[in-house]
Each structure stands twice: as C-alpha cells, then as structure tokens.
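Before relying on records like the one below, remember that each one covers exactly one chain. Contacts with other chains, cofactors or solvent are not represented anywhere in the record.
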Amino acid sequence: MEIWYTLTGDVEKRSAQDAIQWINEQLYSKPVTHLRFLVASAGGDIDTGTNLYMYLKSLPVEVETIGFGVVDAAAALIFLGGKKRLAVDGCRFFFHEGQYTVPLQTAPLSSHEEALSVFRRNLHEMIYIIARETGNDTEVVANMLRKSKIMQTSEALEFGLCSDIIEKLPLQQQEAGFGFRESGSIERESRPLSKRRAQPLRAESEDDRRIDQ
C-alpha cells in the first residue's frame, strides 16, 4: 500500500519530528511499499532539511516527492529526498546560501572559528546533495547558491531537480486504511478529547426545575 504525507509551513525541528514519527508508525503497522511526500514551504532550518533528506533516502520503501507552490532552500533539500520527483506546473524553487546568526557577538576567536566551520560544513553538505541528486558539477551548484537562483518548473526539469512536471496533484479518494497525514495534525490530535469537544454548561432555569419535579 502507499501512504501520503504533506509538509507545509517552515522547515523546523518539530515539523521533521512529526513527519518521521508518523511515517515510522505507518511502516511499523502497515505493509507500506510506497510513500508520497508532498512539500510546499518557504524554507527554514538547513540542518533539519538535510536530516529529512537523509531520512527519506534511507527508507526501505519507494519514496516519491511532489513539490507544489513554493519550495525554497531547506525545503528543496527535502524534495531531493525522493527517488521520483514531481513538480506541479507553476511550482517555484529558490536556492541560496544559508543565513546564520552568531549567538555570541563578543567571544574568543576560537568560538567564531568553530561557528564558521559549522556554517561552511552546512554549505558544503548542501552543495554536495544538490550536485549529486541533479547530476550537476559542484562548482555550478556553488555558484548558483552564491548568486541565489529562482527556478520555474521548466528550468527545474532541465536542471535535473525534478523528473517530471504534472498539471494537478494526484489526489483521489482511497480505500479504507489508506494513510494520509498533513504536517501539524499530530499536535492537534494529541490534545485531550475533553478539550477538543468541550461544550459550555447550560444554566438551569426555574421552568426546567419545575418540569423535573
């Protein structure tokens, strides 16, 4: 069977944890053979994007990613985690170098050097992933990130980012037991039932008490 997961919003640790948790639960409990991972995001944390990319690449099932809307930076790394990668016509991809904030502005030189080494490692990892998955040279990718690059679907196809362009999302009614999850729904479902279905208490009137008697 196949399962679907949709990731929208920022790429952050919580969204990655929710995705991995739900997908793992499906793999443990059902005979899953195919995962379709839909992604539309304005980006976020590069480390989180890299982690989700590696997770999707290591799954023992066929992984298909589908990009729609805006797929920027960290989200593009997640998109590259699919063996088959589809882009809805009009989808926009945005590539650029990561932007970092140094927490301690006043610190020993060794601390700044350590921070810079981490930033460089993230950049090199991003370059390597994009180059390997698209079949382009690392220098081409590095130059693209340095200058920032927006790709429409036709250019993304030519670059090797996606394998095909589709007109519509392939969504259709499925049989019972079909797995589908949207990012953020895990948190909503984890709230106590009493809080989700709480009804206001009705004040008892004089007439009600007479009827009861």
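Residues 2-98+148-198 form a domain with the 2-enoyl-CoA Hydratase; Chain A, domain 1 fold (CATH 3.90.226.10).
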